[in-house]
């Protein structure tokens, strides 16, 4: 009897750690059989600042998922975020090796490796080399050159890199938990797997992941990622603004944002009030919903403006044909879609992860787009390269990924 195929994703964010375990059905559907969601510790703005605290938080998340599923996690696809992540366009070219000029997987690997080699500073490390299209003897727009004839193979890629120290610190934390890493996956790319349609990726779409410590963006065009950027503003900054502006504890401000927050102050009556907690226990007081929304709107204005500026610097000044898709915990704020549409000048929708079944009730919201996307990322790689997701390390997947994602 065939062993059950398993895919595991660990999404390590500023505010939460989410470990998901999925069983793969014979029809390649993902059934969530374990979910461990715990508060994050030891991270700031997407990067590890305290290894011991981060290990404890990740370990607690992993143990919860293992207990719920009855499965011992040996390895996982791990999400990576932070303002240190950047992208650049790169070009690789090689001569086809076979005497009959048939292009092989080895030629493709060498072309991608050539694209990865560049003037990368010593403190930076390549995470992904994503092919946008190939060129054979001057013929452009080829998506998969394997088996075709040619003498010269070129590839246009998007190279995504991060700070070596940040990457190694996260990897060290995962290792100390006793889990192997099948691949590190930049979180907006993972989220794209969970919420974007093929049509959106082909036409051109911007995905904005509004996390707790950072807001990460990715542009997809012609079915592939073309640009990745990050700004050091996230949902925690909104909560902090509320805490400072309304003179209340951070935890209470965060809860107030979640329960009563609205991204647009326009249309809210001045006399609409809500009770808020103060620093003095039992001394609750009323505050205007309009004032609360003005605080939230001001920070979101700044966040979206910063993201728009980043995209503009990369040459994406005009609105994307398929618009903008918002994910992340902050994307659940009421009114945020309308505010984002006004700032970006393009249609906006909220992305909710789909395509899974089983224990999905707790993760069926934008906050878990990257978490679900890690599972889909792993499944797609296995399908494309014939890897078996057996219990234990995903050996063949890892072997392929090492060539692309060091």
Give me the oligomer status: single chain
**What is the fold named in CATH at topology level of the domain at 86-161?**
Dna Ligase, domain 1
Overall pLDDT metric: 89
Count of helical regions: 11
The neighbouring-strand order within the major sheet is 11-6-1-2-3-19
Q: How far do the termini sit from each other?
A: 35 Å
CATH architecture of the domain at 86-161: 2-Layer Sandwich
Strand content: 25-35%
Main sheet attributes: strand count, strand direction, barrel closure: 6 strands, mixed
Total number of strands:
19
Cα Rg: 22 Å
Report the CATH C-level class of the domain at 86-161. Alpha Beta
Shape estimate: globular
Helix content: 25-40%
Structural commentary:
The structure is a single chain. With 406 residues, the protein is an alpha/beta fold. The protein has a domain at 86-161: Dna Ligase, domain 1, CATH 3.30.1490.110. The protein is built from eleven helices and 19 strands. The strands form five sheets. A six-stranded mixed β-sheet has the order 11-6-1-2-3-19, sandwiched between helices. A hairpin with a 2-residue loop joins β13 and β14 (224-231). α1 (51-69) crosses α3 (164-177), α6 packs across α7 and α8 runs parallel beside α9. The chain is globular and about 80 Å long.
Short note summarizing the structure:
With about 400 residues, this protein is α/β, with parallel strands linked by helices.
């Amino acid at each position: 009897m065939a062993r059950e195929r398993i895919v595991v994703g660990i999404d390590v964010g500023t505010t939460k750690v989410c470990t998901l375990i999925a069983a793969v059905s014979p029809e390649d559907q993902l059934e969530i059989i374990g979910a461990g969601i715990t508060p994050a510790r030891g991270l700031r703005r997407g990067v590890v600042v305290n290894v011991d605290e981060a290990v404890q938080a990740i370990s607690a998340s992993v143990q919860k998922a293992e207990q719920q599923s009855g499965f011992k996690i040996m390895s996982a696809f791990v999400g990576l975020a932070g303002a240190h992540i950047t992208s650049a366009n790169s070009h690789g070219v090689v001569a086809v090796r076979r005497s009959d000029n048939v292009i092989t997987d080895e030629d493709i690997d060498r072309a991608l490796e050539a694209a990865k080699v560049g003037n990368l500073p010593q403190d930076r490390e390549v995470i992904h080399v994503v092919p946008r299209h190939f060129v054979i003897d001057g013929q452009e727009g080829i998506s998969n050159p394997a088996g075709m004839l040619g003498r010269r193979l070129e590839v246009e890629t998007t190279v995504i890199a991060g700070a070596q120290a940040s990457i190694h610190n996260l990897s060290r934390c995962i290792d100390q938990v006793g889990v192997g890493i099948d691949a590190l996956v930049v979180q907006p790319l993972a989220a794209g797997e969970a919420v974007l349609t093929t049509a959106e990726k082909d036409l051109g779409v911007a995905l904005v992941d509004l996390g707790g410590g950072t807001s990460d963006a990715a542009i997809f065009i012609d079915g592939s990622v073309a640009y990745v950027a990050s700004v050091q503003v996230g949902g925690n900054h909104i909560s902090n603004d509320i805490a400072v502006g309304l003179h209340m504890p951070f935890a209470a401000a965060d809860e107030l944002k979640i329960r009563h927050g609205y991204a647009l102050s326009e249309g809210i009556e001045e006399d609409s009030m809500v009770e808020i907690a103060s620093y003095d226990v039992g001394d609750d007081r009323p505050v205007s919903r309009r004032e609360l929304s003005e605080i939230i709107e001001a920070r979101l204005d700044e966040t979206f403006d910063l993201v728009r500026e980043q995209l503009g610097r990369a040459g994406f000044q005009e609105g994307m044909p398929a618009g903008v898709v918002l994910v992340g915990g902050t994307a659940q704020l009421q009114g945020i879609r309308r505010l984002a549409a006004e700032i970006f000048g393009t249609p906006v929708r909220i992305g909710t992860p789909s395509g899974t079944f089983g224990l999905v009730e707790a993760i069926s919201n934008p906050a878990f787009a990257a978490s679900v996307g890690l599972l889909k990322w792993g499944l797609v790689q296995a399908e494309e390269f014939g890897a078996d997701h057996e219990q234990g390390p995903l050996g063949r997947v890892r072997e392929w990924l090492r060539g692309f994602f060091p």
